[in-house]
Amino acid sequence: MGALDYSVVVRNLPYLWTGLQLSLLLAALAILGGMLLGSIMSMLRMSRVRPVAWLALAYVNFFRSVPLILVIFWIYFLVPLLLGRATGPFLSAWIAFTLFETAYYCEIIRAGVQSIPKGQINAGVASGMTRLQAMRYIVMPQAFRNMMPILLTQSIILFQDTSLVYVVGLHDFLTAATVVAGRDNRLVELYTFVAVIYLVLCVAASYGVRCLRLRFVQ
Fold this sequence. Notes:
The chain is mainly α. The protein has nine helices and no strands. Helix 3 (50-63) crosses helix 5, helix 6 crosses helix 7 and helix 7 (131-161) packs antiparallel against helix 9. The N and C termini lie far apart (51 Å).
């Protein structure tokens, strides 16, 4: 195999940093989109209108039952057909991640909301609030505090999953490392570097999750 030469990593840091930026950007946008749609979907899941609740449940079960890589393929090929024009791999990947993660965030948020005693909504209504206002100002702040550690854990998983975007030609962090490794024949050095970066980022995020759990849950 020969001596390891990590100078190849230093020489290609700008290119690798560009790939890491793409991975972080995609993860951040998917987290924002997934949480927003997940909040809406969780409300639909808890709707008293049964057809609405059933449709939301069907959405959640569907996206939680198929591989993410398959969803990326579907969106990459279907969205241009629906819009009548090319959307680009980044937009397709973002839509796929957002739709997929919405199903998981929906269940996390629903569980968080249902962990709050129903009497608090009744108390809010008794004080003059509408049910929507009671949900917004009383229940949701407490629910998000309870489910924050789980939400962050799911976000870490999402960041790790961004490595799947190579299937649509996006040069994320792992793909950038693969390009350099293949070109310079330094697979061990590049993949070791990628593993270390993922490890550092995920361990740091996990430590943040643990601190939040100790602060908010206990």
